[in-house]
Amino acid sequence: MARRIVAPVSEFAPGTRRRIDVDGRGIVVFNVKGEYFALLDKCPHNGGSLAQGVVTGLLQSTTPGDYSYTRQGEIIRCPWHGWEFDIKTGRSFCTGIHARARPYPVTVEPGSAVAEGPYRAETIPVRIEEDYVVVDA
Amino acid sequence: MSVERLPGIYDCDIHPAVRSMADLEPWLERRWIEHFRTYGAIRNQHYMSGAAYHKSQPNASRRDAWPPEGGPQGSSLEFMRTQHLDQNGIGFGILNPLVSSQGVRNLEHSAALCRAINHWQAEQWVAGEPRLHASIVVPYEDPETSADEIRHWAGDRRFVQVLLLSRTSMPPGNKRYWPIYAAAAEAGLPVGIHAFGNSGWPVTSSGWPSFYMDEMVGHAQTSQSGLVSLVIEGVFERWPELKLVLIESGFTWAPSLLWRLDREFDILRSEVPHLKLKPSDYIRRNVWWTSQPMDEPENKRMLGDIFAWLGWDRIMFSSDYPHWDFDDPTRVIMFPATDEQRRQFFVDNARGVYGTR
Predict the structure, then answer these.
(1) Residue A117: its pLDDT value, please?
(2) What are the DSSP E strand ranges found in B146-187?
(3) Chain B residues lying within 8 Å of A49, measured CB to CB
(4) pTM for the whole structure
(5) Phi first, then psi: what are they for B52, rounded to 5°?
(6) Residue A121 has what pLDDT?
(7) Which of A46, A53, A79 sits opposite B331 (nearest CB)?
(8) CB-based contacts of B39, cutoff 8 Å, min separation 6
(9) Partner-chain contact B62 A80, CB within 8 Å
(10) Residue A95: pLDDT band by 50, 70, 90 thresholds?
(11) N or C, fewer C-beta in 10 Å, chain B?
């Protein structure tokens, strides 16, 4: 795993996402209501880019005529075939798919921590007075 | 053999899009330009614009396929080159334009639009990209005019097939449509029948369904009834050289249909004395299927059984780029297959049907 700075917290608003490249792997990082989550940017079904999907909610029904729509902003829908995944866990809500979208740990760290060591060489401008979103991918 | 090592995949279903209908104006007479601007193009469906069943993605297309320079998905040759032809190793791609034209109720307008779309394909797409090949779009509810359109382009190597849609006003084997098959056979061009179209009838034989999902599944049913009609009416008896390609309507249903047709033929052959061969013999001689959207049984090996039953020589790869239910060539054969079988599927079958050109 490699540690990568994604963005300063102040520039990464809730409801938005960032795609970064980690050693040739695309990683998409989401800000869901102030929490950060990352997934491999490759749908486990057929390989579509989840970074370009629509963020939606979880529509469920216990019986015809009844539905619940919950967890708005927490579900990503693939831009190709529409498979849906829980942004927080990568888990699929489609019954036919066993693989889940691969999640990666994301943390928020103070700029004084992420500015140390080799990360200073990253092209992302580092301002150590702020907090940064960091992904271990 | 991995897909990457094949010499150039044949993709039998690519959809170029117009940025707007004004793209066709260079090849339309002033009369039709003004007609369209004033009255639109009334399709053979409910009196409404657009598709009767709203699609699950914008323009029924991948959300990652918007060209960077603007316009709808599939409207940029440059972006199609980089995102699809280059990236997926396509060496031979067949254009199947689904631009509103074939189901237009005003048959003269339909014919004018089809002619313009054929020029647009040849001059805007094929001329600039040798990997792409065009389909002759015909106003099939006017079969004589369709035959004229086929003869107009016959011999032009930019065109590799005649394109019909699966929803015709009468079953497609009906004698009414025979001028189309006669002209295609004479020109040596395969007839491709692609899912969709506006027939004036409900989109399923049980009526108008409530969901887009009904429509998606229904393409297989429409294609089956169309194929049955073409066989039983004697189209392949009359034109033994005619090649028919069924596009985007599945193929896993075909083995059981062939079994059922042959069984009924044994019992009812006195009703159809014009058929000299078993239905499955015509179909195995004259008919091919494209793969997308590939069914996805939980046990993928079951697809291998279907390929074996129908014949590895019958099924050809198609991607449906840029539409949302696109199949990636590296993710289609997810079950055991030999190098030879993969080569048939990705290259040889389509090369046989469409030629090398």
Answers:
(1) 39
(2) 159-165
(3) 64
(4) 0.89
(5) -65, -35
(6) 31
(7) A46
(8) none
(9) yes
(10) low
(11) C
For residue B347, what are the domain limits?
3-354
Give the total number of structural domains in chain B: 1
Angstrom distance (rounded) from CA B131 to CA B128: 9
Whether B37 has its CB under 8 Å from any CB of chain A: the answer is no
Strands A35-40 and A25-32: antiparallel
The pair of structure tokens assigned to A33 is 């209501």
Cβ neighbours for B25, distance < 8 A, ≥ 6 positions apart: B33, B116
Contact in structure between A57 and A73 (CB atoms under 8 Å): yes
Interface contacts A/B by beta carbons within 8 Å? 30
Beta strand spans in chain B (E):
9-14, 90-95, 132-137, 159-165, 191-194, 244-247, 287-290, 315-316
SS3 content of chain A, % helix, strand, coil (to 5): 10, 45, 45
Q: pLDDT digits over A39-59, tens only?
A: 999 998 888 999 999 999 999
Residues 6+ apart with CB under 8 A from B257: B224, B227, B228
DSSP structural state of residue B314: S
Report the alpha-carbon distance of residue B55 to residue B216 in Å, rounded. Answer: 10
How does B59-89 read in b/e, with b if 16+ C-beta sit within 10 Å? bbbbbbbbbeeebbbbbbbebbbebbbeebb
| CATH number for the domain that contains residue B272 | 3.20.20.140
Of B267, B288, B303, nearest to B350 (Cα)?
Answer: B288
Look up residue B136 and give its two tokens. Answer: 């002759």
Cis peptide before B67 (omega within 30 of 0): no
Neighbours of B200 (CB within 10 A): 14
